[in-house]
Sequence to fold (323 residues):
Amino acid sequence: MRDHDSATATVAIAVSTPDAAGQDTPTAATAPAPARGPLVGRGALLAALGVAAFSLTFPATAWALEGMGPWTVVMLRSVLAAVLAGGALAVFRVPLPERRHWTGIAVVTGGVVLGFPLLTTLALQTSTTSHAAVVIGLLPLTTAAYSAVRTGARPSRTFWIASLVGAAVVIGFAVQQSGGAPGRGDLLLFAALLVCAAGYAEGGRLARHMPGWQVIGWALVLALPVTVAGAAVALSTEPLRLTAHAVGGLLWLATGSTFLGMVAWYRGMAAIGIHKASQLQLAQPLLTLVWSVLLLGEQLPPAAPAASLAVLACIAVTQRSRG
Fold:
């Protein structure tokens, strides 16, 4: 397994030399050794902080939609986040990424900066935040699957069984809540899963080569020509009512969900591995359900407690399994 896709490090018995891609190629036998405990613990904490930030995304989006159109919300959140990220890149005089990293940054831009926010915001026009949260609960499995295909990682059988069980719980919960008939909102959410999984996995891979805040920072800057033009068009065509909820929701989406949460998330994935970090997101829909009750006054679905226990059990299994 490659070193940037796992929480294990490679201890060289002899000297290693860099290849053309910048990776270390051992010239003699190597032996796998576990990553240091403090590093793994810190990485898990950072990934968990990212999940906590993301759990507020849907409620914040619902608040923003109270005073803005969906295109306005998506474009403005990205523009504001890009201003924050671009300012940080300029202050710290961060050099441009190497050419070989721009393809991955473009995937992060398309999946995390543009695709996921747009698809989920459109879905929330017809779906409740609690319903959307449980559908997006499939994100850990899609992220792990994309990572395995993209990087050649091979998680254990136990890992995949626990992931599939967690996904089955989420699907069953979503179907039960929707009456067994997926609608337009569900299709948008499933599409959001696919593009976001690609963005998460590529971002986690890139965070092994540069700090996580630079990964999302450059992705936001790369999207600026699209988001600035989109914001101008959206503001001229969609209604705008600057209520406290709308402004507060937009500011959280820009600072917490789009930038700071992604910084912690990518750094955490780089430390503990993409497939393990992705499983922490099984807790995200449960947290979002709590926020939907506290912040939006939605009724908690009766099946939520049982689903919570089942999903938390799956998290425990995936975190103990080894790839």
The CA atoms of residues 154 and 323 lie 6 Å apart. Strands lie at 8-12, 16-18, 24-26, 30-34. The chain has a mean pLDDT of 83.
